[in-house]
Structure formats: structure tokens, C-alpha cells
Amino acid sequence: MEMTMGRMASLLLGMGVLLMVSAAQAELIVLAAPKSEDRYYADVIDEIYDFHVAFARRIEGRDRVVVLTDREGYDDYVEALGPERVAVAPMEDIWMRDFGTANPDAPVMFRYSAEGQGGGDNGQRDADAVQEVLAVMAEKAGVRFQESDLLNDGGNLVDDGDGRVVLSRKFLRDNRFNEEQGRAAVKRMTGARYVAFIEADEQGGLEHADGVVSFIGPNLLIVNSYPDDPDYRRKLHEDLQRGLPGVKIHEIVTPYDGNKIYDERFGSACGLYTNALVTPHRIYLPQFGIPDDHIAIEQLRSITDREIVPVPAHQVCFMGGGVRCMSWQLRGRSADRLMDYLGRVR
Predict the structure, then answer these.
(1) Which of 41, 80, 108, 154 gives a 20 to 30 Å CA spacing to 11?
(2) Residues 6 or more apart in contact with residue 311 via CB below 8 angstroms
(3) Structural domain contains residue 71
């Protein structure tokens, strides 16, 4: 009987054999530690460290990973992960997804929006400053990407690597586009063939699409279930089907938990399995230490051959993000160039 690569990988891993992948096949996943003097994250810096270490260890042997930190945090991360997975290149924030490049296949650096830094004029100035630090490093390293003045966080662009993109309508409002104009702009910047716009499930604030939907294959989506909001559920499915012809939509268990929130401006990502990090060969699935974790894993296994890699996210989900939000994805020569650069400046 023929066995897919995903099934073979799962079988071998179940036997305790860790598959090593070549650099050419592997995704580079870049994480950023908070600066040691950052007062905003002072109360949760240990939780962020624990999340980073656990996540990086899940990535090892599957994809490539590097944690960017300042000199004060360098030794702690090296002790846990080794020097080849840590670099002194401090970022101004930890949510690499949002101010990094979107769409790993055709990378675009949109202008990071003010809401990611609290909103308003001050928030936009802070957002620009946060993004500039990453942009300068990427350019020095020779990482190739398009630049756009259009406002959009990376968390508000979900793509399948096969020409399909989902964004929330916040993108349209921020850039004063109607849907036709917005769709044309996204296609032009990313090379997408199909673009769906959805309403975020919570209005105001970040309104990221990656808290609602996730592509786990070409034209294959998982979406949150909304049993208590049938009108929103119906509209969500309609918007996706209209923008993505022939899309297959699977609802996933959604035990959302907003009881603990670090910053009221950003809500919680606890219980949102849609905030998964998807690479060409695997799905890094957030886990929250609850019974639904197993249900979510089994639901995914029934619809995809990609390896499911559980990643504890309970340490950070109450801050409004987790596995996908923390991750900047790079591929091919850009990934190699960044690692070469970080090796020179380490």
C-alpha cells in the first residue's frame, strides 16, 4: 500500500525516530525574545522564555529555528538551545509575525499597523520604529522581499502557498479600499489568484484573520466553530466560499478562554487552534493543557497528511497570540542569508 510522506513521518516519529530534514527542505522559523529592560513584558518574561524554549525544541530536527535576543538574555537561551539556535540581534517586540514579512512564498513587508502598538498616532510611530529594526537587519542580511506602504499586520494575511489568501476587512478600512480595489492590491503584491475578505470575530483592536482561519493545504481551511453565533458563522462561510472557489472548510473545536487577559487591547488567543504555524510539511499546533487539545489533533489528522506537532502555548496565549503570532517564516536563499548574517554578528 502506498504511503504518503506525511504518514511515513508520523509512523517513524511514533517509533521514536527523529527525522532530520535538509536545510533546503526546512522552513526557518525566527522567534524574538523581549529586551531585558522592556517593562511591558517584565511580568511575563519567564513565561515567554519557557514558550520559546519549548517551541524551539519541537522545531529541532523538523525545521530550522533561531531565537533573536539581547546580550542579557543570550546565555540563558544558549544554555537551553545551544549557540547555533540563538543570536544577539534584539528586536523591539516579540510578535514577529505582525511586523515581519507576510506570505513566505512571495514575501511582502506591509507597513505594520498602529493597533499592534496600541493604536493612534503614537502607536503608528512605535509600529514604524519596531518594524524598522527588523527591516534594517533583513536588508543587511540580503533577505529578499517586496515593500509596501499599505497598512497590514502579518497576522492578518493567511495564505495556502498555492495562490489563495484570506484577510479581514480591517485591511480594507485601513487602506480605504473597496473589496475590488483591495483584492487587486493583494493580488499585485503577493501574486495571489484568489482573495477572500472576512469580518473579524471581534471588532476593534487587531482583527487578525489568523485568529479565525488557517490554511492547512491548498484551498483547505480550518475555521473556528461558532455554535453561539450562527449569524457570524454563516457569514464567515459565505465570505470564504465567495472569495475562494471550491474551498474546503473544516470547523475545529474552539474552547476559547478569555478569563485571563494580559492587555485588554489585544484580547486572548487561548483555545484558538487556528493560530497554528503551517509549514510545507507540518503543522505546529498550539496546545493549552486542556482535554480539547487531543480532540483538535485528531480532527486535523483526519483531514491532512502533514505532521501535527503539538506546541504548548498556555504560557503566552493570554497575551493575545502564540505559535503563529510569534513566528517569522523564511524559506530558501533568504533563510540561508539570514542565518549566515546572524552567524557573522553573533
Answers:
(1) 80
(2) 54, 55, 58, 277, 284, 285, 286, 287, 323
(3) yes
